[in-house]
User: What shape does this take?
Amino acid sequence: MIESLAIVLGVAALAAAVVLVRHRFWPPGPDDEPREDVAEYISMMVGVLYALVLGLSLVSVWDAQSGAEDHTATEASAAHQIHLLAAGLPAERAGRMRDEIETYTRHVTDVEWPAMAEKAPLGREGWRMLDEVRATGQVPADATPAQQATGQEILAQLSTLDEARRGREADSTEELSPVLWFGLIVGGVLTIAFMFLFGVTRSFTHVVMVAGLSALITFTVLLIYQLDSPFSGLFAVDPTPFTRHF
Assistant: This one.
């Protein structure tokens, strides 16, 4: 982050120094391009580059939000399938399997979900519960072919659940890069500031233009901020897939 900031500030200082040197030693002649045209061109380039930063940031957080929703739905569906498949296990294991998977889902909704909203680590308790489910799914050697097939299907669903859980854990801690946040804030300030470089005949029109652009940029940055936390905020992914199945 420090290196990126140093590069950005260094390039900006170099560009400013070049402009100062040019105006000091090679002032524009009467036939050169007016300063207003140069300012308009620079303002347009800043707007285009800022639009790219906004687009990249919005796509990044939107993908993270969609991934969190997909991982949650997949994990809940796999847990539900395991709960249903438990009926095909030997009688002494079926009830234990259902109790263990229900305990796991309650742990996810009651303990892990508040922790994810705070971006806190989830710990190993959930994985320990899944290890118990996996151990229960190991059918004995004298089980019937149907029960052995059920055990294999449970292990397959557990593999899907494990993968989805890892994805959910990663989604809960992912954040937009500080470099992009720097570009969003500084780019927004520059884009709005450049609106004051050009005169508009009607002051009311100028005020509306600046206010509208400021509001739109602020809205977009706030939208990115809300989407940057998949499990908290206005667009938080909730544990509905788990509560719906159990």
In short: The chain has eight helices and no strands. Residues 37-245 form one domain.
